[in-house]
Design brief:
There is one protein chain. This protein has about 300 residues and is mostly helical. Helices cover about 55% and strands about 5% of the residues. The protein starts with a helix and ends with a helix.
């Protein structure tokens, strides 16, 4: 079974073009599934039934796994079994007609404008690393990029004269995102002052580098955001996508149309972007309660 999982993951990577992060998540999900099958003494793929899949999902729920995580694991398992049927390794897909757990879309945590300003003002721009960090924070908020996308920005992806950045997102899909004046100024200063210092004569295609002149990792970017949020005394839960969520919310609050925000975020389906409209509705309800004479 382990070999079949590897073959399946190779298929997702090469033929479907899924990102490394997605492949890693699918591997973990399928390994969890295989452990369940082994503990249930199911040794052959042809012996797996719909009730086994349902039992797996119930066991995950009993362990306190969140509904969205269970749904993601089911998606990985469903794709795996469909792959096995397509490759004629098995005849029946046991996931057929099994419903995904109903998910309540959780409204993501966002920062207010004041909190964003406080966060971005934390790096010490008298320091070369601080100059880099400010450029990173400005870029994340200006573009709504995922942290993993920001880590992979290459110099050739930038056009600072026109004010655009080319980004490669999920499924290797490219999109072009505008850069604001503040982000452009911060990136230019980083490229003039800090980046050559980190490179020490070496060459790199990537924009954001660590102090050893190598591409900064998404884990380092996440730790950076969390550290500055703490120093800014932001009490909200800070996650890797917090600036991305704030970017989308603030655009919609100021009248941006949903399709444009969808394009900038790189969402394949507009229903994913629509979650941010719920935030606006909640804000409107709060304002209505505060100021309407008959709330």
């Amino acid at each position: 079974m382990k070999e079949l999982i590897n073959t399946f993951l190779d298929y997702l990577s090469v033929e479907r073009g899924l990102s490394n992060n997605t492949i890693i998540s699918y591997r973990e999900d399928l390994n969890t599934y295989m452990d369940f099958l082994a503990n249930s003494h199911i040794e052959a793929l042809s012996k797996i039934t719909k009730s086994d899949i349902a039992h797996f999902m119930l066991r995950q729920k009993d362990k306190g796994i969140a509904a969205n995580s269970i749904a993601r694991r089911l998606a990985a398992i469903r794709m795996f079994h469909r792959f096995l049927v397509r490759e004629r390794i098995t005849v029946v897909d046991p996931t057929d007609l099994i419903d995904s757990p109903k998910l309540w879309k959780k409204i993501p945590d966002t920062l207010s404008l004041n909190e964003v300003e406080a966060l971005i003002s934390q790096p010490d721009i008298r320091d070369k690393q601080g100059i880099r960090d400010k450029a990173i924070l400005e870029t994340l908020y200006a573009t709504g990029m995922r942290v993993s996308e920001a880590a992979n920005i290459k110099i050739e992806n930038l056009n600072l004269d026109i004010g655009f950045l080319r980004c490669t997102g999920k499924g290797n899909k490219e999109r072009v995102i505008p850069l604001g004046k503040k982000a452009i100024a911060s990136i230019k200063r980083y490229m003039e002052v800090s980046r050559p210092h980190f490179l020490k004569g070496k060459i790199s295609d990537f924009l954001f580098l660590n102090r050893f002149g190598k591409k900064i990792s998404r884990q380092s970017l996440w730790k950076l955001i969390k550290r500055y949020a703490k120093s800014a005394r932001i009490k909200k839960s800070i996650r890797p996508h917090t600036l991305r969520h704030s970017f989308a919310t603030h655009l919609l609050e100021r009248g941006a149309d949903l399709r444009s925000v969808q394009e900038m975020l790189g969402h394949a389906n507009i229903s994913t972007t629509q979650i941010y409209t719920h935030i606006n509705k909640d804000r409107l309800k709060t304002i209505h309660r505060m100021f309407h004479p008959r709330p």
